[in-house]
Amino acid sequence: MSYIQNSFCSLVIIFCFCVSGSVHAENTGVGALKAYAVFKMGDYEKAYELWKELADEGNTTAMNNIGNLYESGLGFPRDMQIAVQWYRLSAEAGDRLGQLHLGTAYEQGAGVPRDNQQAADWFRKSAEQGDPDAQFNLGVMLITNYGTELPASAKMLEDARQWLEKARLQNHPEARIFLQMLP
Questions:
Q1: How far apart are CA 74 and CA 95, in angstroms?
Q2: What is the gyration radius of the CA atoms in the chain, in angstroms?
Q3: By the 8 A CB rule, do 141 and 164 touch?
Q4: Closest CA to 88 of 78, 71, 100, 79
Q5: Where are the domains of the chain?
Q6: Burial of 154 (0-12, 13-18, 19+ CB in 10 A)
């Protein structure tokens, strides 16, 4: 057995001892670890197969990871519509990263028609769960009045300040700059 295989097996064994809960949770944890390991080794098709099994069991991280494979074109031709389908499954199940990615897709019009209100709604759901990128994105959307030519209201600017401050407190690299630019 190679060094990498020995290391991987050791990690899986350690992980099994560390994960608490039901057998199903342990199997999902080990499966997620194995999927990530084969992904890091560049075997995207195998990672997809493993993540698909987990996604079928309701694992939102696996759903999100499959979306990332399609968005990045890793192992498959790049397909934003399929990526968005996976992000939506993850987002609707309450996953903050799925919500962030779905919001970004709406903001950019990638795989779905551009819709800044939908983008803001998904960013808000993710931001409320503490995601700093979503907090930043929502703050920027409020500053720009959802990308319209209309000036943002005082209430929108105050809300933007609060979201940007939350992102800044989590060391978001651009939040401080935007906070300094607010009146």
A1: 22
A2: 19
A3: no
A4: 100
A5: 3-98
A6: exposed
Residue 74: DSSP 8-state: S
Q: Domain 3-98 belongs to what architecture?
A: Alpha Horseshoe (1.25)
The amino acid occupying position 158 is E
Write the pLDDT tens digit of every residue in 46-98: 999 999 999 999 999 999 999 999 999 999 999 999 999 999 999 999 999 99
Rounded Cα gap, residues 172 and 139, in angstroms = 12
The answer to whether residues 36 and 8 touch, using CB atoms and an 8 Å cutoff, is: no
C-alpha dihedral sign at 145, 151, 154, 158: positive
Contact 75, 46 (CB under 8 A): no
Joined together, the tokens standing for residue 173 give: 């690299």
Q: Is 170 helix (H, G, I), strand (E, B) or coil?
A: coil
Overall pTM > 0.85: no
The pLDDT tens digits of the residues spanning 34-50 come to: 999 999 999 999 999 99
8 Å CB contact between 111 and 80 = yes
Q: What one-letter code names the amino acid at 100?
A: L
